Amino acid sequence: MNRLSRAVLGLFAAPRVNMREDYGKVRRVQQRLAALSGPRYRTAYRQTVAEVAGRLVPVRVFQPRQKRRDDVLLFFHGGGWVTGDIESYTPACATMADLTGCVVASVDYRLAPEHPFPAGLEDCFGVARLLLQEPHRAGIGSAGNVVLVGDSAGANLAAAVSLMLRDQGLRTAGRQILLYPVTHWDHDPLTSPFASVRHHGEDYRLTNTEVQDYFELYVPDPVQRRNPLVAPLMATDLSGQPASLVITAELDLLRDEGEEYGRALRAAGNEVRIHRVESALHGFIALPRFSRSLREAYEVIDDFLDGSLNGGPT
Question: Mind telling me which residue stretches traverse the membrane in this protein (predicted)?
Answer without folding.
Answer: none
